[in-house]
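Sample entry as discussed:
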Amino acid sequence: MSSIKGMLILGFGGHARSVADVALASGIKQLYFLDNNAKPHESFASFPVKSTMDFELPMDWVVFPAAGDNKKRSEQCDWAIEQGLRLGTLISPTATLGIGAQVGEGSFIAHHAHLGPMALVERGCIINTGAVVEHECFVGQFSHVSIGALVAGRSRIGARCFLGAGSTVIDGLRLAEEVTLGAGACAHRNLDLSGTYVGVPARFLGSKD
C-alpha cells in the first residue's frame, strides 16, 4: 500500500472505523469517509465524514467498501465500479500470509489475522481481527470471517457467508452460499443449505426467507 496516498472509505459504522485504523497502520496518510447519514462537520480522528462526494478522487487514492453487512458491502463495490473508481485491498501489517495466499480486491485482512499457505480470499471479504483461514482454504466473495473465527485447512466457504465470532469450521468442509454460523458454533460436517446454524455441533435453525 506504500504507493497509496489516501483512501475514500465507504460507510461510517464500526467496521469503517476498523478499516481506518488498519489503513493508518499501513501508512496511508489521508482518509475521507463517505456516508449518506453523515452529520454536519462530523469527523473521526480528525478525518472528515461527508454525505456526498464533493471532490474528485486523486489518482493515488483508492476506494474501500467498509460495510460490515455482506449485502451492503457488495453494493458498495458495485457503486465504486460504476463510478469508475479504483477499489483497494487492505491487509494489516500485523496480519500474516502464508506462501501463495491470495486476497481479492476490496477485501480486508485485519490485525493479527492469518491466512495459511495457498489460501484464497475472494473479492470484498472481511477476515477480521485474530481470525484464521488455514492452508488451501477458499473464502467466497463478500463473506465475513469474524473476530477469532477458525477455518481449518482445505475448507471451502461459499459466497456471502458470515462466520460469527469464535466459530469453527473443521478441516475440509464445505459451506453453501449465504450460510450464517453463529458465534462460538462449530461446523463438524458440510453445511449444504443456506441459512443459520448455531451450537456445538452446529444445527440448522432455518433459512432467511
Notes: The chain has two helices and 24 strands. The mean pLDDT is 94.
